[in-house]
Design the sequence.
Protein backbone atom coordinates (compact mmCIF):
# COMPACT_ATOMS: atom_id res chain seq x y z
CA UNK A 1 0.00 0.00 0.00
CA UNK A 2 1.59 3.30 -1.11
CA UNK A 3 1.28 6.15 1.36
CA UNK A 4 0.49 9.61 -0.08
CA UNK A 5 3.42 11.24 1.74
CA UNK A 6 5.78 9.07 -0.26
CA UNK A 7 4.17 10.30 -3.44
CA UNK A 8 5.13 13.84 -2.51
CA UNK A 9 8.68 12.82 -1.64
CA UNK A 10 9.07 10.90 -4.92
CA UNK A 11 10.38 7.82 -3.12
CA UNK A 12 9.35 5.64 -0.20
CA UNK A 13 10.65 7.44 2.88
CA UNK A 14 9.88 4.63 5.32
CA UNK A 15 13.04 3.62 7.24
CA UNK A 16 14.30 0.12 6.50
CA UNK A 17 13.62 -2.10 9.58
CA UNK A 18 16.70 -2.44 11.79
CA UNK A 19 18.71 -5.58 11.17
CA UNK A 20 17.47 -6.06 7.59
CA UNK A 21 20.00 -7.83 5.39
CA UNK A 22 19.51 -5.46 2.48
CA UNK A 23 21.34 -7.50 -0.13
CA UNK A 24 19.62 -10.77 0.79
CA UNK A 25 16.17 -9.15 0.98
CA UNK A 26 16.57 -7.35 -2.34
CA UNK A 27 17.59 -10.58 -4.07
CA UNK A 28 14.77 -12.50 -2.37
CA UNK A 29 12.17 -9.98 -3.55
CA UNK A 30 13.56 -10.04 -7.09
CA UNK A 31 13.08 -13.80 -7.21
CA UNK A 32 9.64 -13.71 -5.62
CA UNK A 33 8.35 -10.94 -7.91
CA UNK A 34 10.24 -11.93 -11.09
CA UNK A 35 11.95 -8.55 -11.07
CA UNK A 36 15.21 -7.59 -12.77
CA UNK A 37 17.48 -4.86 -11.42
CA UNK A 38 19.28 -2.82 -14.04
CA UNK A 39 21.86 -0.20 -13.09
CA UNK A 40 23.86 2.47 -14.86
CA UNK A 41 27.62 2.73 -14.33
CA UNK A 42 27.21 6.03 -12.50
CA UNK A 43 25.20 4.60 -9.61
CA UNK A 44 26.77 3.76 -6.28
CA UNK A 45 29.09 0.72 -6.28
CA UNK A 46 26.79 -1.23 -3.93
CA UNK A 47 23.85 -0.68 -6.29
CA UNK A 48 25.90 -1.80 -9.29
CA UNK A 49 27.01 -4.91 -7.39
CA UNK A 50 23.46 -6.04 -6.54
CA UNK A 51 22.13 -5.44 -10.08
CA UNK A 52 21.38 -8.22 -12.57
CA UNK A 53 22.63 -6.04 -15.37
CA UNK A 54 24.92 -2.97 -15.43
CA UNK A 55 25.48 -1.02 -18.61
CA UNK A 56 25.60 2.21 -20.56
CA UNK A 57 22.39 3.81 -21.84
CA UNK A 58 22.42 1.77 -25.05
CA UNK A 59 22.96 -1.58 -23.34
CA UNK A 60 20.26 -0.76 -20.77
CA UNK A 61 17.73 -0.01 -23.53
CA UNK A 62 18.66 -3.21 -25.37
CA UNK A 63 18.38 -5.25 -22.19
CA UNK A 64 14.96 -3.76 -21.38
CA UNK A 65 13.72 -4.63 -24.87
CA UNK A 66 14.52 -8.32 -24.37
CA UNK A 67 13.88 -8.99 -20.68
CA UNK A 68 11.26 -11.52 -19.62
CA UNK A 69 10.94 -10.13 -16.10
CA UNK A 70 7.57 -8.77 -14.95
CA UNK A 71 9.15 -5.84 -13.12
CA UNK A 72 12.13 -3.76 -14.21
CA UNK A 73 13.81 -1.76 -11.45
CA UNK A 74 15.87 0.87 -13.21
CA UNK A 75 18.63 2.10 -10.93
CA UNK A 76 19.49 5.20 -12.88
CA UNK A 77 17.81 8.45 -13.81
CA UNK A 78 14.21 9.09 -14.79
CA UNK A 79 14.71 9.13 -18.58
CA UNK A 80 16.21 5.64 -18.38
CA UNK A 81 13.08 4.39 -16.63
CA UNK A 82 10.93 6.12 -19.24
CA UNK A 83 12.87 4.52 -22.08
CA UNK A 84 12.30 1.11 -20.50
CA UNK A 85 8.58 1.80 -20.04
CA UNK A 86 8.23 2.96 -23.65
CA UNK A 87 9.94 -0.24 -24.83
CA UNK A 88 8.00 -2.47 -22.40
CA UNK A 89 4.57 -0.84 -21.90
CA UNK A 90 3.11 -3.99 -20.33
CA UNK A 91 5.79 -4.28 -17.64
CA UNK A 92 5.97 -2.48 -14.35
CA UNK A 93 8.98 -0.15 -14.46
CA UNK A 94 10.23 1.26 -11.17
CA UNK A 95 12.88 3.91 -10.42
CA UNK A 96 13.77 4.03 -6.70
CA UNK A 97 13.68 7.85 -6.54
CA UNK A 98 11.69 9.96 -9.01
CA UNK A 99 13.83 12.99 -8.15
CA UNK A 100 16.65 11.39 -10.12
CA UNK A 101 16.35 13.57 -13.19
CA UNK A 102 19.13 14.62 -15.58
CA UNK A 103 20.41 18.10 -16.35
CA UNK A 104 20.45 17.35 -20.09
CA UNK A 105 16.83 16.20 -20.08
CA UNK A 106 15.93 19.25 -17.99
CA UNK A 107 17.73 21.58 -20.40
CA UNK A 108 15.30 20.66 -23.17
CA UNK A 109 11.64 21.51 -22.41
CA UNK A 110 9.13 20.03 -24.87
CA UNK A 111 7.38 23.31 -25.81
CA UNK A 112 10.64 25.12 -26.66
CA UNK A 113 12.10 22.12 -28.46
CA UNK A 114 8.88 21.77 -30.47
CA UNK A 115 9.20 25.43 -31.54
CA UNK A 116 12.87 24.83 -32.44
CA UNK A 117 11.87 21.88 -34.63
CA UNK A 118 9.15 23.95 -36.32
CA UNK A 119 11.67 26.73 -36.99
CA UNK A 120 13.82 24.25 -38.97
CA UNK A 121 11.50 22.58 -41.48
CA UNK A 122 12.95 19.75 -43.56
CA UNK A 123 15.40 18.69 -40.84
CA UNK A 124 15.69 15.19 -39.43
CA UNK A 125 15.43 15.39 -35.65
CA UNK A 126 18.04 13.38 -33.75
CA UNK A 127 17.72 13.33 -29.97
CA UNK A 128 20.14 12.01 -27.43
CA UNK A 129 18.55 9.37 -25.20
CA UNK A 130 19.03 11.78 -22.26
CA UNK A 131 15.65 13.41 -22.95
CA UNK A 132 12.10 13.12 -21.67
CA UNK A 133 9.53 10.93 -23.40
CA UNK A 134 7.86 14.12 -24.70
CA UNK A 135 11.06 15.08 -26.56
CA UNK A 136 11.44 11.57 -27.95
CA UNK A 137 7.89 11.89 -29.28
CA UNK A 138 9.10 14.88 -31.37
CA UNK A 139 12.14 12.96 -32.64
CA UNK A 140 12.96 10.94 -35.78
CA UNK A 141 15.90 8.96 -34.39
CA UNK A 142 17.12 8.58 -30.80
CA UNK A 143 20.85 8.05 -30.25
CA UNK A 144 23.10 7.32 -27.29
CA UNK A 145 26.74 8.27 -26.90
CA UNK A 146 27.48 4.65 -27.89
CA UNK A 147 25.94 4.85 -31.36
CA UNK A 148 25.46 8.56 -32.21
CA UNK A 149 28.42 8.74 -34.59
CA UNK A 150 27.45 5.52 -36.39
CA UNK A 151 23.83 6.65 -36.82
CA UNK A 152 24.70 10.14 -38.06
CA UNK A 153 27.22 8.63 -40.49
CA UNK A 154 24.54 6.28 -41.84
CA UNK A 155 22.42 9.24 -43.01
CA UNK A 156 23.05 10.81 -46.42
CA UNK A 157 25.68 13.59 -46.31
CA UNK A 158 23.21 16.20 -47.54
CA UNK A 159 20.54 15.38 -44.93
CA UNK A 160 19.76 18.37 -42.75
CA UNK A 161 19.81 17.45 -39.08
CA UNK A 162 18.73 18.96 -35.78
CA UNK A 163 20.64 17.47 -32.86
CA UNK A 164 19.59 17.91 -29.24
CA UNK A 165 19.98 18.47 -26.43
CA UNK A 166 23.73 18.11 -25.79
CA UNK A 167 25.72 20.83 -27.55
CA UNK A 168 29.02 19.14 -26.62
CA UNK A 169 28.15 15.73 -28.07
CA UNK A 170 26.64 17.51 -31.10
CA UNK A 171 29.77 19.65 -31.65
CA UNK A 172 31.97 16.58 -31.33
CA UNK A 173 29.96 14.72 -33.99
CA UNK A 174 30.00 17.80 -36.24
CA UNK A 175 33.79 18.07 -35.86
CA UNK A 176 34.46 14.39 -36.62
CA UNK A 177 31.95 13.98 -39.47
CA UNK A 178 32.22 17.44 -41.03
CA UNK A 179 28.43 17.84 -40.73
CA UNK A 180 26.72 21.03 -39.74
CA UNK A 181 23.94 19.73 -37.57
CA UNK A 182 21.87 22.45 -35.93
CA UNK A 183 22.45 22.09 -32.20
CA UNK A 184 20.18 22.59 -29.21
CA UNK A 185 22.03 24.49 -26.48
CA UNK A 186 21.96 21.98 -23.62
CA UNK A 187 24.69 20.45 -21.46
CA UNK A 188 25.35 18.10 -18.55
CA UNK A 189 26.30 19.82 -15.29
CA UNK A 190 28.84 17.09 -14.48
CA UNK A 191 30.66 16.82 -17.81
CA UNK A 192 30.78 20.58 -18.37
CA UNK A 193 32.72 21.00 -15.15
CA UNK A 194 35.91 19.10 -15.96
CA UNK A 195 38.90 21.42 -16.00
CA UNK A 196 41.31 21.11 -18.91
CA UNK A 197 43.98 22.89 -16.89
CA UNK A 198 43.70 20.52 -13.94
CA UNK A 199 43.53 17.45 -16.21
CA UNK A 200 46.78 18.56 -17.84
CA UNK A 201 48.37 19.10 -14.41
CA UNK A 202 47.36 15.55 -13.47
CA UNK A 203 48.75 14.27 -16.77
CA UNK A 204 52.08 16.04 -16.04
CA UNK A 205 52.24 14.10 -12.75
CA UNK A 206 51.28 10.84 -14.52
CA UNK A 207 52.81 11.17 -18.00
CA UNK A 208 52.02 7.58 -19.01
CA UNK A 209 48.35 7.82 -18.07
CA UNK A 210 45.82 7.60 -20.91
CA UNK A 211 43.01 10.16 -20.85
CA UNK A 212 39.48 8.74 -21.22
CA UNK A 213 36.76 11.27 -22.06
CA UNK A 214 32.99 11.06 -22.40
CA UNK A 215 31.74 13.09 -25.40
CA UNK A 216 29.47 15.17 -23.13
CA UNK A 217 32.66 17.00 -22.05
CA UNK A 218 33.58 20.35 -23.57
CA UNK A 219 35.60 20.47 -26.81
CA UNK A 220 39.01 21.35 -25.29
CA UNK A 221 38.79 18.35 -22.92
CA UNK A 222 37.71 16.04 -25.75
CA UNK A 223 40.73 17.24 -27.78
CA UNK A 224 43.27 15.88 -25.26
CA UNK A 225 41.59 12.46 -25.05
CA UNK A 226 43.29 9.20 -25.95
CA UNK A 227 39.83 7.68 -26.15
CA UNK A 228 36.42 9.36 -26.50
CA UNK A 229 33.39 7.17 -25.95
CA UNK A 230 30.33 6.10 -24.02
CA UNK A 231 30.77 4.74 -20.52
CA UNK A 232 30.82 1.18 -21.89
CA UNK A 233 33.39 2.13 -24.56
CA UNK A 234 35.66 3.78 -21.97
CA UNK A 235 35.38 0.75 -19.70
CA UNK A 236 36.28 -1.58 -22.58
CA UNK A 237 39.25 0.58 -23.61
CA UNK A 238 40.56 0.61 -20.04
CA UNK A 239 40.49 -3.20 -20.01
CA UNK A 240 42.07 -3.72 -23.41
CA UNK A 241 44.73 -1.00 -23.49
CA UNK A 242 48.23 -1.70 -22.21
CA UNK A 243 48.39 1.49 -20.11
CA UNK A 244 48.59 1.02 -16.37
CA UNK A 245 47.10 4.42 -15.45
CA UNK A 246 44.04 6.25 -16.71
CA UNK A 247 42.62 9.72 -16.13
CA UNK A 248 38.87 9.35 -16.36
CA UNK A 249 36.80 12.35 -17.48
CA UNK A 250 33.30 11.16 -16.83
CA UNK A 251 31.12 10.61 -13.77
CA UNK A 252 33.21 8.93 -11.09
CA UNK A 253 30.83 5.96 -10.58
CA UNK A 254 32.41 4.26 -13.60
CA UNK A 255 35.66 3.92 -11.66
CA UNK A 256 33.99 1.21 -9.57
CA UNK A 257 33.64 -1.15 -12.55
CA UNK A 258 36.99 -0.12 -14.06
CA UNK A 259 38.79 -0.91 -10.82
CA UNK A 260 36.86 -4.18 -10.34
CA UNK A 261 37.77 -5.34 -13.84
CA UNK A 262 41.44 -4.29 -13.60
CA UNK A 263 42.51 -4.20 -9.94
CA UNK A 264 46.17 -3.88 -10.96
CA UNK A 265 45.57 -0.63 -12.89
CA UNK A 266 45.20 2.88 -11.47
CA UNK A 267 42.18 5.02 -12.30
CA UNK A 268 42.33 8.72 -11.50
CA UNK A 269 39.10 10.74 -11.59
CA UNK A 270 39.52 13.84 -13.75
CA UNK A 271 39.30 16.94 -11.56
CA UNK A 272 36.44 19.40 -11.91
CA UNK A 273 37.15 23.15 -12.17
CA UNK A 274 36.00 23.71 -8.60
CA UNK A 275 38.23 21.69 -6.29
CA UNK A 276 35.88 22.30 -3.35
CA UNK A 277 32.98 20.29 -4.74
CA UNK A 278 32.40 16.69 -5.83
CA UNK A 279 31.40 18.02 -9.25
CA UNK A 280 32.42 14.82 -11.03
CA UNK A 281 29.52 13.08 -9.28
CA UNK A 282 26.04 13.10 -10.76
CA UNK A 283 23.89 14.06 -7.79
CA UNK A 284 20.85 12.56 -9.57
CA UNK A 285 22.42 9.12 -10.03
CA UNK A 286 23.62 9.16 -6.43
CA UNK A 287 20.02 9.54 -5.21
CA UNK A 288 19.62 5.82 -5.89
CA UNK A 289 20.56 4.08 -2.65
CA UNK A 290 20.27 0.49 -1.44
CA UNK A 291 17.58 1.56 1.07
CA UNK A 292 15.45 3.16 -1.66
CA UNK A 293 15.99 0.12 -3.88
CA UNK A 294 14.79 -2.13 -1.06
CA UNK A 295 11.66 -0.01 -0.42
CA UNK A 296 10.97 0.33 -4.11
CA UNK A 297 10.92 -3.45 -4.55
CA UNK A 298 8.94 -3.95 -1.36
CA UNK A 299 6.17 -1.48 -2.27
CA UNK A 300 6.57 -1.71 -6.07
CA UNK A 301 6.69 2.06 -6.14
CA UNK A 302 7.57 4.64 -7.53
CA UNK A 303 6.37 3.44 -10.89
CA UNK A 304 7.22 5.16 -14.17
CA UNK A 305 4.21 6.17 -16.23
CA UNK A 306 4.19 7.35 -19.82
CA UNK A 307 0.91 8.26 -21.47
CA UNK A 308 0.02 5.80 -24.27
CA UNK A 309 -0.19 8.66 -26.84
CA UNK A 310 3.33 9.87 -26.03
CA UNK A 311 4.68 6.31 -25.81
CA UNK A 312 3.24 5.43 -29.21
CA UNK A 313 5.19 8.28 -30.83
CA UNK A 314 8.32 7.92 -28.68
CA UNK A 315 8.80 4.21 -29.34
CA UNK A 316 9.39 4.72 -33.08
CA UNK A 317 12.65 6.73 -32.83
CA UNK A 318 13.92 4.40 -30.10
CA UNK A 319 13.22 1.32 -32.24
CA UNK A 320 14.82 3.05 -35.20
CA UNK A 321 17.96 3.51 -33.10
CA UNK A 322 17.94 -0.15 -32.05
CA UNK A 323 17.48 -1.22 -35.68
CA UNK A 324 20.27 1.07 -36.95
CA UNK A 325 22.82 0.04 -34.31
CA UNK A 326 22.38 -3.73 -34.26
P1 LIG B 1 26.30 6.54 -21.47
O1 LIG B 1 25.30 6.34 -22.55
O2 LIG B 1 27.69 6.67 -21.99
O3 LIG B 1 26.17 5.50 -20.43
O4 LIG B 1 26.05 7.96 -20.79
C1 LIG B 1 24.89 8.26 -20.11
C2 LIG B 1 25.01 9.53 -19.41
O5 LIG B 1 24.11 9.96 -18.74
C3 LIG B 1 26.24 10.26 -19.54
O6 LIG B 1 26.23 11.35 -18.69
FE1 LIG C 1 22.38 13.45 -16.89
FE2 LIG C 1 24.83 14.37 -16.61
FE3 LIG C 1 23.82 12.80 -14.74
FE4 LIG C 1 24.47 11.81 -17.16
S1 LIG C 1 25.86 12.65 -15.62
S2 LIG C 1 22.59 11.41 -16.00
S3 LIG C 1 23.94 13.53 -18.48
S4 LIG C 1 23.10 14.85 -15.31
Sequence:
Amino acid sequence: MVDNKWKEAGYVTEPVPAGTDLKAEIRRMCKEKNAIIMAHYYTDGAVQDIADFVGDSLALARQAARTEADIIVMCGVHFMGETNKILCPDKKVLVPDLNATCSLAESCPAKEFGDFVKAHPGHTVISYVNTTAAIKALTDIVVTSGNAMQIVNALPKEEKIIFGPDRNLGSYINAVTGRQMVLWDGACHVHEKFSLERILQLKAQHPDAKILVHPECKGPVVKVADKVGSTAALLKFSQEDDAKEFIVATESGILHKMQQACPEKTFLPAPPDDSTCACNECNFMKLITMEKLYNCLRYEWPEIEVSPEVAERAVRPINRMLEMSK
The chain has a mean pLDDT of 96. The chain is about 45% helix and 15% strand.
